[in-house]
Amino acid sequence: MKHLTFLFLAMVFSMLSCQQKQVLRPTMGPITESVYAIGLVRSDRTYDLRLGVVSSINKFFVREGDLVKKNQKLLMIDSGAVFIAPYEGVITHLPFSLGETIAPQQSLLTMVDLKKLYLEASLEQQGALKVKRGQEVQISFESFRSAVFHGKVQNILPRNQEFVVQVDLHNLPENILPGMNADLSIVISKKDKGILLPQNAISNGHILLKRNKKTQKVKVTVGVIDSEFAEVLEPILNPDDEIVLPKENQL
User: Fold this and answer.
1) Neighbours of 44 (CB within 10 A)
2) Quick one: which of 199, 250, 205 has its CA closest to 19?
3) Counting beta carbons within 10 angstroms of the beta carbon of residue 103, is it exposed (0 to 12), middle (13 to 18) or buried (19 or more)?
């Protein structure tokens, strides 16, 4: 009697164990691998007027917020010298008043070209290794979550033990200004159609493939990877194949 009870309990446990095994099937669809970062809007041209001698301002021809044209007069100092705009831009800073003494190398005026903007972001080494010039970048701002803007990687360079990516921008709204933050999604690679599996179905480069009622551990080669899925290049999977989730990844 005890033997029969033990056998019955073993069968129940076996059935429950089988029922608890989670299986899934491969899916077919698009996949995009991206590197994500937070970028800062910068101007490609900033004019910061500084002098090498003690001086003062005799006359202003502009005010903060003015849009000036190339060769337009900006200000006159006590020596009578007049400074003009090197290009079109907006006056963003006039820190001194008329007649106030200005020490050498202090900024008298700052002007920014708001038509030549770019994004700059710091990347981790793993992401920087994947980024190249010319890659597509999708850009979003917190106030424009429904809109996605586009740019391209202009440069990837080292700076002070960091890896900096610079992104050329296109068709931004006029109210986007230097100093604003943006979310960047740098497209590394993408496939319009691939055989996909959730990443948690892959353990140490292998999957548990159930085919023709037989389950075996199979090595996989992956292609494009996003935050959730991986494209499986080898082995060739069929829609009817079942993939058993590794025990540590089962819910």
Assistant:
1) 15
2) 250
3) exposed
Among left, alpha and beta (phi > 0; psi -120 to 50; other), residue 199 is alpha
| Residues β-bridged to residue 189 | 33
Question: What CATH architecture does domain 34-43+116-190 belong to?
Answer: Beta Barrel (2.40)
Give the strand pairing for 67-68 and 89-93. antiparallel
User: 46-50, 79-83, 179-183, 245-249: which range is least confident on average?
Assistant: 245-249
Q: What is the rounded CA–CA span in Å between residue 32 and residue 11?
A: 45
| pLDDT band at 4; cut points 50, 70, 90 | very low
Residue 12 confidence (pLDDT): 37
Q: Tell if the pTM clears 0.85, that is, is over it.
A: no
How confident is the prediction for the chain on average, in pLDDT?
88
> Vertex 210, ends 205 and 215: CA angle to 5°?
80
Flag the least confident range among 41-45, 91-95, 176-180, 243-247.
243-247
On whether the CB atoms of residues 144 and 173 are closer than 8 A, the answer is yes
Average pLDDT over residues 29-53: 95
CATH topology of domain 22-31+192-249: 2.40.420
In sequence order, the β-bridge partners of residue 159 are: 162
Looking at the domain 46-112, which fold is it?
A: OB fold (Dihydrolipoamide Acetyltransferase, E2P) (2.40.50)
Task: List the domain boundaries for the chain.
Answer: 22-31+192-249, 34-43+116-190, 46-112
